[in-house]
Design goal:
This protein has about 210 residues and is of the alpha+beta class. It folds into 2 domains: about 5-70, lambda repressor-like DNA-binding domains (434 Repressor (Amino-terminal Domain)), CATH 1.10.260; about 85-210, Umud Fragment, subunit A. Helix content is about 25%, strand content about 30%. It has 5 helices and 10 strands, in the order αααααββββββββββ. Strands 1-2-7-6-10-5-4 form a 7-stranded mixed barrel. Strand 1 (about 85-90) and strand 2 (about 95-100) form a beta hairpin.
Length: about 210
């Protein structure tokens, strides 16, 4: 049997089955669809209804038009959400300094962890806290941030950030604030005096903190 023949037979069965489930004669069923009784007779003998009539019959059947047209659709299980792995590119240690694994700010890291939800697209990386210098955050916690631009974006101001001090300075984790000096910043710490009038190469907002 050809595919077209199978589809025609399937449609005939669905039209007849729908009509019978509603307890209607061909004439009364035709009135519901808005066609002549001869149309229903032809459909039940293998003729294919027009799309507008399939849509009407699907409404009567409480089915999607594609389901009525082609038969029951197989259930498709959604694929499991893929875990997005993020490289850990350094540690945060004494004095809240980031000790990088490699020379590349967006490098591959030495381990990978599951990325946080809701941080959008882009090059997200993480650093892992070592020791207790980041109290109240603890040893082993992760800080996630995105390194995809140079400079200091305005959305970094007054937020916890990973910052790179200019002229080959260190990587630090600090709250970033404007300084009174142009193009300089105040770096606030939770456990140490602030650093004032600091020239930065770049800053990146901490997007997520995970214990």
């Amino acid at each position: 049997m050809s595919r077209n023949s199978r589809e025609a037979d399937g449609m005939a069965m669905r039209v007849r089955g729908l009509r019978n489930s509603l307890g209607l004669s061909q004439s009364r069923f035709a009135e519901e669809i808005g066609v002549d009784q001869s149309n229903v007779s032809r459909w039940e003998n293998g003729a294919m209804p027009e799309d507008m009539h399939i849509i009407k019959m699907a409404e009567l059947a409480g089915a999607h038009p594609a389901e009525f047209r082609y038969g029951a659709l197989p259930e498709i299980e959604p694929p499991p959400a893929a875990s997005r792995l993020v490289p850990v590119v350094g540690y945060v240690g004494a004095g809240q300094t980031v000790f990088a694994h490699d020379d590349h700010a967006m490098g591959g890291g030495l381990e990978e962890v599951e990325g946080p939800e809701g941080v959008g697209q882009g090059t997200v990386v993480a650093v892992r806290i070592r020791g207790d210098s980041m109290h109240p955050m603890r040893d082993g916690w992760l800080l996630f941030y995105r390194r995809d631009q140079e400079g200091v974006p305005d959305n970094c101001l007054n937020r916890l950030c990973i910052v790179k001090v200019a002229n080959d300075g260190p990587l630090l984790v600090k709250e970033l604030h404007r300084s009174y000096q142009p193009n300089r910043y105040l770096l606030a710490s939770w456990n140490a005096p602030p650093m004032e009038d600091v020239d930065l190469e770049w800053a990146a907002t901490v997007l997520s903190i995970r214990p």
